[in-house]
Amino acid sequence: MSEATLPDPATGIEVTPAQVSDLLPAVRRGEIALVDCREDDEWRICRIEGALLVPLSRFAEATPPEIPVIVYCHHGMRSLRAATYWRQRGAEAWSMSGGIDQWSAEIDPSVPVY
């Protein structure tokens, strides 16, 4: 079985929670960054293990990672904006569709829904 890889950036900006789940070993190895762009109060409710918190409200002052990055939020709208913002600044960035809400429904039901 071959290791999961990110899709070609030219084919789209979104990845599914299942794709992100398959990529978690690369996140753990530091080959891909996983960024949560929700706010601190949301982060305290739940998060995906290995994610870094960079609230969308502070994206203008954040430096995009130099490695590929997957961004997620609550339902996928803020992360889409965040990934687009970082792509415009030269980063390899994708948004996880459906956000942590879909992650909880499809991948890890132990993650609280709010």
From TrEMBL:
PROSITE patterns: RHODANESE_3
InterPro entries, per database record: GlpE_sulfurtransferase, Rhodanese-like_dom, Rhodanese-like_dom_sf
Residue ranges annotated for the Rhodanese domain, each copy included: 28-112
Protein name: Rhodanese-like domain-containing protein
Organism: Luteolibacter flavescens
Lineage, top ranks: Bacteria, Pseudomonadati, Verrucomicrobiota, Verrucomicrobiia, Verrucomicrobiales
